[in-house]
Design a protein that fits this description.
Layout: H1 3-16, H2 21-40, E1 46-51, E2 56-66, E3 78-80, H3 81-87, E4 96-101, H4 108-135, E5 141-149, E6 153-157, E7 163-167, E8 182-193, E9 196-202, H5 206-216, H6 218-221, E10 225-233, E11 237-244, H7 251-256, H8 261-269, E12 274-279, H9 284-291, E13 299-303, E14 308-313, H10 315-322, H11 327-336, E15 339-344, H12 365-373, H13 379-383, H14 387-393, H15 398-413
Parallel strand pairs: 2-3, 7-9, 11-12, 14-15
Antiparallel strand pairs: 1-2, 2-4, 5-6, 5-8, 6-7, 8-9, 10-11, 13-14
Helix pairs in contact: 1-4, 2-4, 5-8, 9-11
Pfam family, one: KH_NusA_2nd
Subcellular location: Cytoplasm
Main location: cytoplasm
Length: 414
């Protein structure tokens, strides 16, 4: 293989990988200089000129002519007068000899090795380009096409044919994709595994929801509305606290849009995830009240030392505050940064009721806490439910629930 064929084949491969010309030339020179060092031990006195467009390569060895008896004759950049005159008969001491080295002089094996090295260098460069490209896009939305569905992840390809990964844990539980589908997600992170970049996408990150709002709500994109915090139970419910520094803009109304037109597009992308947009305030009690929407709060008691908040609601509001699967109260707690305990307001009839703490000598404290987490703070509120309701709403075992019912019923039978 001559220099022209080698360089032209490499240049064509490099261009197919979108490698710019200066980088291509630099790689070629690096590889040829490595060949020189292997043969001559140094490349300091060599001049390498490459024209990738024409496939031209010129390598010159530059040496200073010294007397045959000089002590410097063995230096790498020196040549004896006798040897120099074998190249040109009229050379004199002190002149420089430019000796052209043909590629064939390195041997067929070295040239083949150079070809493999060039291809590998481009592939390494391609990996670096891919890593840097997506490292800069972490937190941004991209679209990619599904090309393989595995048990633990979905493999996608971008517009340039690069492989991206959407792990099971980063998918919304209701996501169902088929080969060829276009998927929106954010670039979650880029890992380098054994020298290969692995681009991880996510659809469950709060940042994904934030970027969707930026796409659908111009005021958010322009910075007129600020998203303070987002908490999510992917595919189920999300709460978004927003704030506007312009009194003329209603941040909640702007995010929702006329008849829900703006938020509907976001909800649809998130597989009908319920999204509560909340007006942020530094008034903690008001913030908690808004965070527990759609429930209406009667009163609130804050314990700043323990970072707990006791919320009192009418009986018909308790289930709304807790929400399906406890999602509403969990998200509200994460949004405000306090643990929220829900309590029912007692009516005149219920004043005859007994709070669960009164049974602490018969029912273990952790069981009482588990019941209170679901808004059950009195004996009658527990007895008003069936065993199946309690199994579904708590993590208590059936035998434990039977014992609770027995203890509470005994109280009222007496």
């Amino acid at each position: 293989m001559d220099a022209k064929v080698l360089i032209e084949s490499f240049a064509e491969f490099a261009r197919s990988k979108n490698v710019d010309r200066p980088t291509m030339i630099r790689i070629l020179e690096d590889v040829f200089r490595a060949m020189i060092r292997k043969k001559f031990e140094t490349d300091e006195n060599f001049d390498v000129t490459i024209n990738a467009d024409q496939g031209d390569l010129e390598i010159f060895r530059i040496r200073e002519i010294v007397d045959d008896n000089s002590e410097d004759i063995w230096d790498f950049d020196k040549i004896s007068l006798t040897d120099a005159r074998k190249i040109e008969p009229d050379f004199e001491i002190g002149e420089e000899v430019y000796e052209k080295i043909e590629l064939e002089e390195f041997g067929r094996r070295a040239v083949q090795m150079a070809r493999q090295t060039l291809i590998q260098r481009i592939k390494d460069l391609e990996k670096d380009i891919l890593y840097n490209k997506y490292e800069e896009q972490v937190g941004e939305i991209i679209s990619a096409e599904v090309y393989q569905i595995l048990s633990r992840e979905i493999l996608l390809i971008d517009s340039e044919g690069n492989e991206l990964v959407l792990p099971k844990g980063e998918q919304i539980p209701k996501d169902r994709f088929r080969k060829g589908d276009t998927v929106k997600a954010i670039v979650h992170r880029v890992d380098m595994i054994n020298g290969n970049p692995k681009v991880i996408l996510s659809r469950t990150s709060p940042v994904f929801l934030e970027r969707l709002f930026e796409n659908e709500v111009p005021e958010v994109y322009d910075g007129l509305i600020t998203i303070i915090k987002i908490v999510r139970e992917p595919g189920e419910r999300a709460k978004v606290a927003v704030e506007s520094y312009d009194d003329r803009i209603d941040p909640v109304g702007a995010c929702v849009g006329m008849k829900g037109s703006r938020i509907h597009a976001v909800v649809r992308e998130l597989q009908n995830e319920n999204i509560d947009v909340i007006n942020y305030t530094e008034n903690l009690e008001l913030y908690v009240s808004r965070a527990l929407s759609p429930a209406k709060v009667s009163s609130i008691s804050v314990n700043a030392d323990t970072k707990r908040i006791s919320v009192f609601l009418k009986p018909d509001q308790v289930s709304l505050a807790i929400g399906k699967g406890g999602h509403n109260i969990k998200l509200a707690s994460r949004l405000v940064g306090y643990e929220i305990d829900v309590f029912r307001e007692l009516s005149e009839y219920e004043e005859e009721d007994v709070v669960l703490e009164e049974f602490s000598d018969e029912i273990e404290e952790w069981i009482i806490d588990e019941l209170k987490k679901t808004g059950l703070d009195t004996a009658k509120s527990v007895l008003a439910l069936t065993k199946e309701d309690l199994i579904r709403r708590t993590e208590l075992e059936e035998e434990t629930i039977d014992e609770i019912f027995r203890i509470l019923r005994t109280e009222f039978e007496q």
